[in-house]
Amino acid sequence: GAVVSQHPSWVICKSGTSVKIECRSLDFQATTMFWYRQFPKQSLMLMATSNEGSKATYEQGVEKDKFLINHASLTLSTLTVTSAHPEDSSFYICSARGRWPRDHEQYFGPGTRLTVT
Amino acid sequence: AQRVTQPEKLLSVFKGAPVELKCNYSYSGSPELFWYVQYSRQRLQLLLRHISRESIKGFTADLNKGETSFHLKKPFAQEEDSAMYYCALSGRVEGGSYIPTFGRGTSLIVHP
Predict the structure, then answer these.
(1) Mean pLDDT of A64-88
(2) Contact between residue B33 and residue B25 where contact means Cβ atoms under 8 Å apart
């Protein structure tokens, strides 16, 4: 159990366009979802935390107007990269966390490779 | 503030050798600590958490509050253990929610 999916798995877009990435918890209710960015051979950088039905909390240095996060239901969160630029090219990973007693464990999606040309 | 330190970026050992991946943390309360593993071309997955006190795939990790460490150990490394290992802490932040903090990761390479 505890499967998290992401869609798309990879996307190529032109500079200036927006792209939406979906993160779904398939078999559990995710009260909290996290969005990370991972650079090659580096650690995960937490971008934001989203709780269902409330605004996302962004980490310092992450532009909330550029990385729009919506967590409209207990099984779906979306990350929209607006006006994408080549420097936004990265691997974006979401994770979901359930209710107690599994409210500390995270279940990760497979990631989305974004390439901005 | 909570912080997780993995001092080794890369650990290279031969098959059958013991392995210890170091993790130190900084947190004022009682932390929940985890080890996650990412095999090549696969998603991150939970390896073990400290409160379960399990041995998964031969790996164990003991929380040492005195040394604020949560090192991951395996007595005999296997080639299939080659992966990226992340130590993570889940700590309560202002507002009451639990926020995860990851270490930078240690790449374990097990040579035949």
Answers:
(1) 93
(2) yes
